[in-house]
Amino acid sequence: MGCEVLTRLFQALDPSRHHLTPAVILLIMAFLLGGGGTPSPLPELSLELLAGLTMLAWIWLPGPVRLPTDPALWTIAALAIAVPALQLVPLPPDIWQALPGREAQAAALALVGEEDSWRPLSMSPPRTLASLLSLVPPLTLMLMAGALQRRQRRILLAAILLMALASALIGAFQISAGGRAFRFYSASHATLVGFQANRNATADILLIGMLALAAYAAGHQSEKGQPKREAAGQRVWWLAGAALLLVLASIFTASRTGIALILPVGIAAWAILALDPRKAWNRRLPVIAGGALAVILGGLFLLRHNLALQQVAGRFDRIAGDGREGLWRDTLYAVCQYWPFGSGMGTFVPTFVALEPLEAVDAGMPNRAHNDYLELALEAGVFGIAALALTALLVLFMAVRAWRRERQDRVQIAFGMAVLAVIAAHSLVDYPLRSLSLACLAALAVAMLARPPRDRQDRP
Question: What is the three-state SS of 155-201?
């Protein structure tokens, strides 16, 4: 009965949008449920279940099953799944006991007579299984978006933009109300966080929203043709206003890296607008940039005594004393202890705590390495690094191929690469991909580079 209702629901929609609707729903729910991270497992589990149901709905839709036609996209999905999946395969005692870093585990099991039992490579199989399940939403969204036409993917850009603007507006209420009002997670930063628990993740979402704004605006111009002068002028002001809101919201997150990335992202957004095939934005870009810069500087000058902005500025005075250097040093030591096979995906906390120097032990509990590359090296070893390198090469290949073959769709290609660049840069000092919201956005960025299916698949 439930399947019949679901099928009838999608049959009531425009046939050309059958496969677009589940992708949009999953993307929006990724914003709403994917921002809590490991400390909030229930929303993440709900998103994982929803992703599975969305994929089933995708398969049950009327007509032939639509799947991505780009082999590179399937290869990236397989690489992501392979690392945690292989870490869960039971190994005979002679093999797992010979792996680096297993001495304490072997000694503990010997005390209960289990030293000869088969064990997986992962030091904590439940944590690794949770990491494997967390791949369901982003990979589902990546494959669904990769099966859409370029014009349908543009609707996903609109969804990203709307949710980024909603995050900024929710954040404005959070700052004005103070305390825990309008916050979605009990453990979250006291700054502007929107739908997330972490200000750094919120900053990335707002920056990606700026890129989506530029890509959607440029795509709108190329599809609709040259607008009338009055409509074009109104569109410019809407664009400038939305960009200003996203920039100011990014500042009020108090994310130091997020604030530092505003200028590079602004340049990237400018470049995306300049890719409009009709060049309709070229003569307006200086006006937009100059006006936005003037408003931002004027606003910051007027608000220089604002307590929230003073707190933001104060965070830049504490860069050298935030403890990340020691965290990176101790993580690198842990990497060496488990190299080259790693300790298992999701096992950073128990692995790091067991090896943390006594002089560094305090009341705080390090939940991440604050460097996703170091954390990947610890948890996945050489196999994870190799999978990441191969994925990067595949992404670069997809981007170059699409850039050469799809001249009219370079806006989406530039958007995808810019999003991945933002996340890759922030991963040097934080852990953006540990937010399912950002993981889904990264997956969607990869899908933007994928070769779209032929038009005949669009027919009902």
Answer: HHHHHHHHHHHHHHHHHHHHHHHCCCCCCCCCCCCCCCCCCCCCHHH
Q: Which domain holds residue 214?
A: 2-65+134-319+406-458
- What are the CB-based long-range contacts (under 8 Å, 24+) for 184-192? 184/35, 184/36, 185/35, 185/36, 185/39, 185/40, 187/39, 187/40, 189/254, 191/252, 191/253, 191/254, 191/308, 191/311, 191/312, 192/168, 192/249, 192/252, 192/253, 192/254
Non-local (6+) Cβ contacts of 241 within 8 A are none
Alpha-carbon distance of 389 to 447, in angstroms, equals: 18
**Residue 47 lies inside a defined structural domain of this protein:** yes
Q: Is the pLDDT of residue 391 over 60?
A: yes
Residue 77 is assigned to a structural domain of this protein: no
Q: Indicate the pLDDT class of residue 304, thresholds 50, 70 and 90.
A: low
Q: Could you give the C-alpha distances from 356 to 326, 334, 352, 368, in angstroms and in order?
A: 10, 8, 6, 13
Read off the tokens for 443. Answer: 């997956």
165 domain residue, yes or no? yes
Q: Rounded to whole angstroms, what are the CA distances from 34 to 53, 146, 446?
A: 16, 21, 19
- Count structural domains, the chain: 1
Structure tokens at 143: 């494959």
**What are the pLDDT digits (tens) for 64-108?**
677 888 999 999 999 999 999 999 999 998 998 889 988 888 888
Cα pseudo-dihedral 209, 210, 216, 218, rounded to 10: -170
